[in-house]
Design goal:
By secondary structure, this protein is of the alpha/beta class. 22% of the residues lie in helices and 16% in strands. It has a single domain, classed as Collagenase (Catalytic Domain). The protein has helices at 18-27, 82-96, 162-172, 206-216; strands at 62-63, 67-72, 102-105, 119-123, 134-141, 146-154. Helix 2 crosses helix 3. It is globular and about 45 Å long. Bound molecules: zinc ion (ZN). Residues 2, 167, 171, 177, 197 line the site of zinc ion.
């Protein structure tokens, strides 16, 4: 469920340098034993990936393959401001890029056919509950497990943080909250990195999420 009011900036926010540290840890190729399986599907989130017309609280898709391309909406009411786009690019290239996913920005996004751009980032509140900073939904399910195109929708006005962008992107590749993981963990378990909810603005993937991504893709 995409319900995580973003906390006010705390002193922890000064630890943005943790992003760089995590990246180094990933490229070192350490074999992490997963703390918990929080990759859809799990015993506690069987669901079924399907196409949705907007955020409905059901988050249950992996992306359809390891080639992960993305686009930030650049025109119309859902366009991202330059600062928000730079947050997305940083998260995708520096936090997801070092995983086994092959990440690229798609400057000519595709919205139809069988090879659509995997993630479209929008700045919008349409369909979001009042307590949600953002949500992810599948626009075009490839099958019951994978989605050909997902939308990440995050509020404007400072909500496009590293943590929230990392969290919603995590959902787009199949990562779940602690209560849907197996074994179950608290939703605010720090070992869940940016998939923790509520999500702090500085959160990154951390070892457990990386382990689950790399064993999936
Ligand atoms: Zn969530």
């Amino acid at each position: 469920m995409p319900k995580f009011p973003v906390k006010r900036l705390s002193l922890k926010a000064i630890s943005l340098a943790a992003v760089t540290f995590t990246t180094v840890a990933v490229t070192a190729g350490v074999a992490w034993a997963a703390y918990t399986d929080n990759m859809y599907p799990t015993t506690y989130q069987l669901g079924s990936c399907r196409s949705e017309s907007g955020p409905d609280g059901e988050i249950s898709c992996q992306t359809d393959n390891s080639a992960l391309n993305y686009y930030t909406d650049a025109s119309g009411t859902n366009a991202l401001e330059a600062g928000d786009k730079s947050v997305v690019v940083n998260v995708l290239q520096n936090i997801y890029g070092p995983t086994d996913l092959t990440v690229s920005f798609d400057s000519t996004p595709s919205y139809s056919g069988s090879a659509e751009t995997d993630i479209i980032y929008e700045e919008s509140t349409v369909g979001l509950s009042s307590s949600a900073a953002g949500a992810t939904f599948c626009n075009n399910a490839a099958d019951t497990r994978g989605c050909d195109q997902q939308y990440v929708r995050i509020r404007g006005g400072g909500y496009y943080t590293t943590g929230v962008t990392c969290h919603e992107t995590g959902h787009a590749v199949g990562l779940l909250h602690g209560q849907q993981a197996s074994p179950r963990k608290a939703n605010n378990d720090e070992a869940l990195g940016c998939m923790e909810t509520p999500t702090d603005s500085f959160e990154v993937l951390d070892a457990n999420n990386i382990s689950n991504i790399n064993s999936t893709y």
